[in-house]
Amino acid sequence: MLYRVALLAGGDSPEREVALRGGAAVERALKARGHEVVRFDPPRDLPRLAERAAEFDAAFLVLHGPGGEDGTIQGFLDSLGLPYQGAGVLGSALAIHKGLSRLLYREAGLSVPPGGLFSRKERERIPSFCEELGYPVVVKPATQGSSLGLSVVKSPEDLSSALERALALDREVVVEKFLRGRELTVAVLGEEALPVVEIIPQGAEYFDYHTKYTPGAAREICPAEIPEEVARRAQEAALRAHQALRLRHYSRTDLLLVEGEIYLLETNTIPGMTETSLLPLAARAAGLSFEDLVERLLEMALEG
């Protein structure tokens, strides 16, 4: 069956360019399957979408970060009665906040790196917290994605500049113990975990923004070359995280494997859809082409 789809891509978060690239790929896939697509670039085009909402069967979101993954646009679409793929308002708001996600992961019996959440007003408490935690530590904004504003701080002298970077993007920061391990990610599609992906940055200490979106800057191995029992535990952890955050349709959770233990880092509610993105890679390993994946997500949106 063919549908008329409002494709929302771009936005005004720091991840705009990535969202535009993903939006272009999704548009090609939808059109290849015969669907009619009209592009909208929030927030500029939202009044136009509100006027034309009745023309569409569903919306397809390729937006990242605040304004796209925080529940804002999901609430807007709910008010229009336009179905969309991915998490609703509550799940989006919970998942984008790394401090709240940590609490829900732990409530679900999942491990997270030792750490804490601090507001801008609590900044003076952070140096002593880091001393207790032990360097190196990770400092990151509470509600940004793609490692934007994230720093690995190896000594107290570097802490102030790392906090400035993170607080320039958010009013709250998460400070965690830096754990060195193998970087894994697991996507959930429906209620099923896809094959585990291992990410090996090439020349970078961790999977930062540049490494994420530059072809060849990281090796991405799927299925990950890890014991079957470890892969199963990683998939179970991603599925439990998906459920703990009240998500639906799909998600992708980043994990660390450290001396046999799996630590949860964060869950993405609208995973990247560019040519180097990890969800399409895992879907391919599970037998789904990029077009198949987009079609499946559109079906989920229509099913509610």
TrEMBL record:
The active site is at E15, S146, S277. GO terms for molecular function: ATP binding; D-alanine-D-alanine ligase activity; metal ion binding. It catalyses: 2 D-alanine + ATP = D-alanyl-D-alanine + ADP + phosphate + H(+). Pfam families: Dala_Dala_lig_C, Dala_Dala_lig_N. Its EC number is 6.3.2.4. Pathway: Cell wall biogenesis; peptidoglycan biosynthesis. Keywords: ATP-binding, Cell shape, Cell wall biogenesis/degradation, Cytoplasm, Ligase, Magnesium, Manganese, Metal-binding, Nucleotide-binding, Peptidoglycan synthesis. Residues 102-299 form the ATP-grasp domain. One of its GO terms (biological process) is peptidoglycan biosynthetic process. Binds 2 magnesium or manganese ions per subunit. One of its GO terms (cellular component) is cytoplasm. Cell wall formation. This is D-alanine--D-alanine ligase. It comes from Thermosulfurimonas marina. The gene is ddl.
